[in-house]
Amino acid sequence: MSALHHRPRERMDLKHYLLSEVSVLMLAPRRVGKTWLMERVDDDLTREGHLCVRFDASGKGTEQAFLGALCNAIEKQKHLHEAVFDHLKQRLRQVAGGDVKDSLSQIVGQVDPKTFSECLVESLSRSDRKTVIMVDEFSLFALALASKDQDATRTLLYHLRSLQQSYRNVTWLLAGSVGLDVVARRFGLGGALLDLQPFGLAPFTEAEARSYLTHLADSGQLTRRLAIDDTVFEHLARELGWLAPYYLQRLGRELRPTGRPTGQGGGTGCATVTVADVDAAFAKLLEPSHRVCFSAWEEHIDKNFPDEDTRRLEAILNTCCQGPDGETENTLLAVLARQGSGVDRRALKDLTSSLANDGYLSRAEDRWRFRSGLLRRYWLEYMSA
Fold this sequence. Notes:
CATH class of the largest domain: Alpha Beta
Oligomer: single chain
């Protein structure tokens, strides 16, 4: 039986969708194990005899570059490449006329991208096995393309929707650290996502987090094995807030237990973690030498939002980080008004929804607060004005 932190339920649900002719849009903020989960689902499906093509679309700024990455992923799988290539070349000769190159990557630059992608997916669909195309950071690719050419992005997304509808033996898992639904709303592309099944990936539950820390210790990824009683773990979970694998690992590496060893008289002898030890580990993670652990949070807004939205989002975060309970929407509207931003309540909802989808904030009744106590303390220390 899989350990709790191996996400057996999420893997089973994703497999069910993908093998039932349902393409998936995975909404997953950074550092919750999105890429790890995609790799495990790839392993699960491949072991069961299905065909999987997985690649990362980040840094791809054009449709041709996106298709080139897809081709490279196919060419790495010799059996899949051989099964697809002959039929694809034959189809491309029919639609493009004349001869075609001898590799998929070369053909991409020889044929119209949409013609090529349709021929490629048609060829994949001819297999007697299910094919799943997994695209990590698809939303970053869509955002980069939309920022340069909104019409091209609209055409591409609707083209992908058409491929999903026409070739049911090929399903898609599109994921990314920016919510594609937010990108679609910003550029008016929501209709292109109608056929995708939304799939939210949350941080670990407390039980999963405990399982993960035990795994890290047992596999030698921490400096020592740890004994953490329920009271201390509840304190750890409450202070961390965002039980993401990345930060659990970082925190585990900094824990220096000072409590009495367990297992006296022939037991395990694990050092016992105290509340003070947890607080000391948090303090260590907030030292300047550990700022690199938070760099993705710093860079994300600057890189992926227009300048005006960046200023508004940073103002919201600078306000919400002042206390663990966050702030009300009325306060946030007042802060943005003083900044000179023409933001009404509806526009504020779009901004806070973006921050929620990307893992910064969560809503509790009428207040917006940081999901991670650690990130809140970091933002207060290093980022807020």
